[in-house]
Amino acid sequence: MDKLLIHGGHSLKGEVPISGAKNAALPILCAAILVPGTLELDNVPNLQDVGTTLRLLERMGVKSDRDGSKVALDASQITHLEAAYDLVKTMRASILVLGPLLARFGEARVSLPGGCAIGQRPVDQHIKGLQALGARIEIEHGYVVARAKRLRGARIVTDMVTVTGTENLMMAATLADGETIIENAAREPEVVDLAAALTALGARIRGAGTDRIVIEGVQALHSGAYRVMPDRIETGTFLCAVAAAGGSLRLTGCDTAALDATLDKLRETGLVIESGTDWLQATMSGRPRSVDIRTAPYPGFATDMQAQIMAVNCVAQGTAVITETIFENRFMHVQEMVRLGADISIQGNTAVVRGAPGLSGAIVMATDLRASAGLVIAGLVAEGDTLVDRIYHLDRGYDRMERKLAAAGAQIERVRTVVDA
Ligand code: EPU
Question: Which of 147, 163, 210, 392 is most deeply packed, by most CB within 10 A?
Answer without folding.
Answer: 163
